[in-house]
Design brief:
- The complex is a heterodimer of chains A (about 425) and B (about 350).
- The relative contact order of chain A is 0.16.
- By secondary structure, chain A is of the alpha/beta class.
- The N and C termini of chain A lie far apart (about 60 Å).
- The model of chain A has no long low-confidence stretch (mean pLDDT about 90).
- Chain A has a seven-stranded mixed sheet, sandwiched between helices.
- Chain A is built from 14 helices and seven strands.
- Chain B is mainly beta.
- Chain B folds into two domains: about 130 residues, no CATH class; about 140 residues, no CATH class.
- Chain B is built from three helices and 32 strands.
- Chain B has a 32-stranded mixed sheet that branches.
- The longest helix of chain B has 29 residues.
- Chain B is flat, with a radius of gyration of 28 Å.
- About 5% of the residues of chain B have low confidence.
- The chains are: A alpha/beta (about 425), B mainly beta (about 350).
- At the A-B interface, α6 and β7 of A face α1, β19, β31 and β32 of B.
Chain lengths: ~425, ~350
């Protein structure tokens, strides 16, 4: 039992050190933005896929925004992927098709497998360009964003591109404010540090791009995956393609405004991530492929981030059991156990990472909310653990994954 | 002390300690002093005319005064709505009074209707607008210049923020251009000039050498954005033989040397240095995680990106008039005689040198 606890402590220490490394790199290291200065070029044709499932509240905003972006109109085609919507999504899309002839090619899907990956997979029949950009329907791209996301594809090593997601409804309530802080830490520090250190920036599946030839080489969209973005990141990596993160390619999104919606969202992410971990971790770490040693290590650790929640819970239980059974930890190990208590929060919460991110973003007073993150992380740790348990049960019983769409809160445009 | 009192004090202390870090959090949650979404400039598109348009908009506030000065051919001192004095110059043929103080500083916005010739060794602390040709003096320091026609900066001029010209921009030797320099026609920089960002349909570095016109090749074979073109991954260093035609996208996990006269039809990336020997044609992009060296008489369609340094030798041509492109790296050295169509962006410093 004690050795099991030591292993968990060691794992948590690894993740804690990783957070410190990322934060210090972001604060003091060399910042890589190699493609952001490309503002003049022979821009390639792009297809922009907009994933939409019952998006009547938000679809008009993104289509309007895309019609005003600064990109040669004759080289950009927008494909709204209307996935079996039962609301006014189809009607709104068709109205835009009429208003902007030749610029929008709708893909109305009325049947087939559920989930974003399955819808994108079917929509590929309309894609004729080498560069594909992907947005969820609740995003609002700025006028320069399409160029910024396309620019990295001039690099033939780049298979995927990821931009930065910024919550638009950050000030709505405590939850949105906490999610705003989390997003800040995740993108401003975590993703950019991985870009700086040539590790594995993660494809987020929205405000993102993928090269069609790379997608074809890795076997297309995996519609069996709950998080097609994580799945894509790892398959690209294993086939020698890089995913790059563009911290200055920012785009507004809407974050969940209620706890049940947030819990559903994070449970889906956890299940998808764990699914990718089971599929790719061993092969990534030890298999024969083109990833570098640092990509293998970081990629494996990244795959483990969601499983660390139940592992930490087990660690807490073991620590209690060890205490009540009167087992005296070896000399010095007590210090590590103390660290566990800290890192159980530090690992998941990464308070220092978030504090650094908020500072880098130039915000000041919102940093005062940091202690409330304990609330968000407590909810996360139990939700993610619940997801892991339910996923294990599903695997044993052979139950199929169910894809839950995140509910929208924006008021529909009149 | 009774046990009850002690227990109460303990609980009170516990809750106080618990509440302490949450107090500023609760105050922020209640008063919402910093709850706006992170500012994303939705309209930012990197337009080079951004500053120029802003300055035109600023001057539009005194348009009637400008029209009046133009009509009567007279100079005037006007106070802008933000209380900054603006010198309107419309008098023809006589030297202007720039109200230069003892430290050789001019602290007024200048709006010139006619050709403008500026005195030497002067610091212009505010922006300058020239409706016609602007001729700077030697050793001047400028904050910003907008020229509706040509702008000529004399030797050893310094620009702190930006210059935009609708016509040509000509910079004499040893100018230091710290901001964004853009023209809607062309920019010419002489040797010794230092720059950070240049943008124009045509950028000439130094005087074009007699043999500077790069040999124009058949570009029909190049189609760097083609998805049909296969990608080759190569571990370690690689040498492309002189004269070889390489019709694939190429990723090299080491150093890449491209021999004289070779043709690269696809996009090229190297994890270490890329060296182009004389007369290489690259129809796609060249991306290096280290340094990028473009030999003489090379022709590259671009973009050119390096994470450390880009060196472009004389008589090399990057982009072309129909397809302008971007050259970007922390440090850029360009030899006299090279031509770039589009953007030259040195994050730290760019310099025009006699030879790289």
């Amino acid at each position: 039992m004690i050795y099991c606890l030591y292993s968990i402590v060691a794992l948590i220490c690894v993740y804690t050190a990783r957070h410190y490394w990322f934060t210090l790199n972001r604060l003091f290291g060399f910042q890589r933005h190699p493609y952001i200065d490309i503002d003049t070029a022979n821009w390639p044709p792009v297809t922009i896929l907009v994933a939409a499932h019952n998006e009547e509240k938000v679809i008009a905003n993104i289509l309007s925004a895309l019609m005003t972006v600064r990109y040669p109109a004759e080289r950009m085609i927008v494909v709204p992927v209307n996935d079996r919507s039962k609301d006014r999504t189809r009607e709104i899309i068709d109205d835009f098709v009429e208003r902007f002839p030749g610029r929008i090619k709708p893909f109305h899907r009325t049947e087939g497998k559920g989930g974003k990956a399955a819808a994108l997979k079917d929509a590929m029949e309309l894609v004729e360009t080498e560069i594909i950009l992907i947005f969820d329907a609740d995003y609002i791209p700025g006028v320069g964003l399409i160029r910024q996301l396309t620019a990295p594809f001039f690099d033939p090593e780049v298979g995927g591109v990821m931009g930065r997601v910024v919550p638009l409804n950050s000030g709505h309530n405590l939850l949105t404010r906490l999610l705003d802080l989390e997003r800040s830490g995740g993108y401003q520090v975590d993703q950019q540090a991985r870009m700086n250190l040539r590790l594995v920036p993660q494809h987020g599946g929205t405000v993102a791009g993928v090269r069609r030839s790379a997608l074809r080489e890795i076997g297309g969209w995996n519609d069996a995956s709950l998080t097609e973005d994580t799945d894509l990141t790892y398959r690209l990596l294993l086939y020698g393609w890089k995913t790059v993160y563009q911290n200055r390619s920012e785009c507004y999104e809407e974050v969940p405004e209620t706890w049940p919606v947030r819990i559903k969202q994070i449970m889906r992410w956890a299940k998808g991530h764990n699914q990718a971990m089971v599929t790719y971790a061993l092969h990534l770490l030890l298999g024969k492929h083109r990833a570098t040693l640092r990509e293998r290590l970081d990629g494996t650790l990244l795959l483990g981030v969601y499983i660390m929640a139940p592992v930490t819970l087990v660690g807490w239980m073991l620590a209690l059991a060890v205490f009540y059974r009167g087992i005296a930890p070896l000399h010095g190990i007590i210090a590590l156990l103390s660290l566990t208590a800290y890192a159980a929060i530090g690992n998941l919460a990464a308070f220092f990472e978030i504090a650094a991110a908020v500072r880098l973003d130039g915000n000041r007073n919102r940093i005062a909310l940091l202690p409330f993150l304990i609330l968000g992380f407590t909810v996360s740790i139990f939700s993610v653990s619940r997801a892991a348990i339910s996923q294990t049960i599903d695997a044993i019983t052979g139950a199929e994954f169910h894809w839950d769409k995140t509910e929208r809160f924006r008021k529909a445009e009149s | 002390m009774s046990a009850l009192l002690a227990a109460s004090a303990l609980f009170l202390a516990f809750f106080l300690l618990l509440a302490l870090p949450l107090t500023p959090a609760c105050l922020e949650l209640f008063y919402k002093t910093d709850d706006a979404p992170l500012k994303v400039v939705q309209q930012h598109a990197g337009d080079v005319r951004f500053f120029a348009d802003g300055f035109r908009h600023y001057l539009a506030q005194i348009q009637p005064n400008l029209d009046e000065c133009e009509l009567y051919g007279s100079d005037a001192l006007i106070v802008m709505p933000d209380s900054i004095p603006c010198l309107v110059l419309a008098q023809k043929g006589s030297p202007h009074d720039f109200a230069i103080d003892g430290d050789k500083n001019c602290s007024k916005v200048i709006a010139s209707i006619e050709d403008l010739e500026l005195p030497a060794e002067t610091t212009f602390e505010k922006d300058i607008y020239a409706r016609r040709r602007l001729q700077g003096g030697t050793g001047n320091q400028y904050r910003a210049i907008l020229g509706e026609r040509d702008v000529q900066l004399a030797e050893s001029s310094v620009v702190m923020r930006w210059v935009h010209a609708v016509g040509d921009i000509d910079c004499a030797p040893n100018c230091r251009l710290y901001g964004r320099i853009s023209s809607e026609r062309s920019i010419r920089l002489q040797a010794g000039c230092v720059f950070t960002r240049l943008n124009a349909p045509r950028i000439e570095l130094g005087n074009l050498l007699p043999d500077s016109a790069p040999a124009v090749g058949d570009t029909a074979g190049g189609n760097a954005t083609s998805s049909v073109m296969e990608r080759v991954l190569h571990d370690g260093d690689l040498q492309i033989e002189p004269g070889e035609v390489f019709a694939k996208h190429l990723v090299v996990r080491g150093t890449l040397r491209i021999g004289e006269g070779a043709r690269m039809l696809g996009n090229v990336k190297a994890q270490k240095a890329i060296v182009l020997d004389r007369g290489v044609f690259a129809y796609g992009s060249l991306i290096s995680a280290a340094t990028l060296s473009i030999g003489p008489h090379c022709r590259v369609q671009g973009p050119l990106i390096a994470e450390h340094t880009i060196m472009i030798d004389s008589s090399a041509m990057v982009g072309d008039a129909e397809v302008p492109t971007t050259v970007s790296a922390p440090r850029i050295e360009v030899a006299e005689g090279a031509v770039v169509f589009g953007t030259l962006w040195a994050r730290e410093q760019g310099q025009v040198v006699a030879r790289v």
